[in-house]
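Lab meeting, item 3. Inverse folding demo.
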């Protein structure tokens, strides 16, 4: 994906306001062996790019004053109540240096899993993205999580997912966090039919006969 930017010389809040009034977005690009540089980007193309998931987790080609370099989107500041981008940060990347990035999880085969088809469980996505470390060439746009074998009462952990080659997860605290859980409606035990659980519940609460 491509970003077209121009060098920005005017600094300060007043200059940034003038840029925004002209449908431009002030930003900065940093990293590598080059000093940080102030940039400006046309608002509307950037706004529409930000609505694409891959724009947030992919290596981007930034064309800056006729030269192209590889960058990552690092931060976006939005207006408090308007759909307006106020500021963006990009980081330069080098092909031989590992990067840290949040990558979204894409869940497949949920509706055909035993948890849903057999026990009508409610599936909850505990995490929707994970931190990874990899070389830029190995950065995936997303990581697929297959729920084909998900059953109620057996959470799916990070170690249950096959990561793309060259990609290492970065975890904080729990080395094997839960990604997905499946809970049977009404609190039925694992493998118990919801209807049977519903019939059993009133009987358990009924007062003993004298």
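The presenter then showed the designed sequence:
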């Amino acid at each position: 994906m491509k970003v077209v930017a121009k060098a920005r010389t005017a600094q300060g809040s007043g200059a940034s306001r003038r840029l925004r009034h002209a449908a431009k977005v002030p930003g900065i690009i940093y990293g590598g062996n080059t000093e940080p540089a102030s940039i400006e980007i046309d608002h509307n193309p950037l706004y529409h790019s930000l609505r694409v998931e891959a724009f947030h987790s992919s290596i981007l080609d930034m064309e800056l004053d006729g030269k192209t370099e590889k960058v990552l989107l690092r931060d976006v500041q939005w207006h408090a109540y308007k759909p307006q981008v106020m500021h963006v940060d990009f980081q330069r990347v080098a092909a031989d240096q590992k990067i840290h990035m949040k990558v979204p999880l894409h869940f497949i085969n949920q509706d055909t899993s035993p948890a849903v088809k057999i026990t009508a469980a409610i599936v909850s996505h505990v995490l929707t993205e994970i931190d990874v470390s990899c070389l830029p060439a190995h950065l995936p746009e997303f990581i697929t999580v297959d729920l084909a074998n998900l059953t109620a009462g057996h959470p799916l952990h990070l170690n249950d997912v096959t990561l793309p080659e060259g990609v290492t997860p970065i975890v904080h605290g729990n080395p094997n966090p839960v990604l997905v859980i499946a809970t049977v409606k009404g609190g039925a035990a694992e493998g118990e039919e919801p209807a049977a659980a519903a019939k059993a519940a009133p009987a358990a609460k009924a007062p003993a006969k004298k």
